[in-house]
Amino acid sequence: xSEKKYRKVRIKAGKRGWGGPLEIEPKPGKDYIYCxxxxxxxxxxxxxxxxxxxxAFDGFSSKRDFDQIAVAVIDCGGTARVGVxxxxxxMTVDIHATxxxxxxxxxxxxxxxxxxxxxxxxxxxxxxxxxxxDDTAVDETPAPAVEEKVEAVVEKAEAEVQEAVEEPKxxxxxxxxxxx
Length: 180
Prior knowledge:
By secondary structure, the protein is an alpha/beta fold. The chain has one domain (about 1-180). Helix content is about 25%, strand content about 20%. It is built from three helices and ten strands, in the order ββββαββαββββα. The strands form three sheets. It has a five-stranded parallel β-sheet with strand order 5-4-6-7-8, with helices on one face. The chain is globular and about 65 Å long.
């Protein structure tokens, strides 16, 4: 066991961004600042980790379960992936100025998603809190399990959207008008 310090940070929408503000407060067992922006740690994820005491983590090089993620930092321009983390209940920061879109748009809500974020849109709003951390159970599995789960969820959502689009075509005009 060791001690680790955490504090709350606020992340607001950047220029032309949408959503938020989000208040991120890492805690033991849920302190990963999960970065899925093309490899490496994006400056926004690094700044959130620095200010909050969370652990910046490259989601492309290893895995973490959704319930271990304090916030996911993504770089999605508005396709299906933009809604995956909100759908799983993970607060999400998009570095692109996106709005709810794609097949998972219904999960992208202002209380769990913010976009257009730069390092200037992150501020400290809490004092340091010391917590006991069990550092013996660290899993450094090199397989990107969350990304595999994300891909499966995206594929399922895209299939549901395609089915919803195709179904009215099968019914014809009479069926669409009269529900037949």
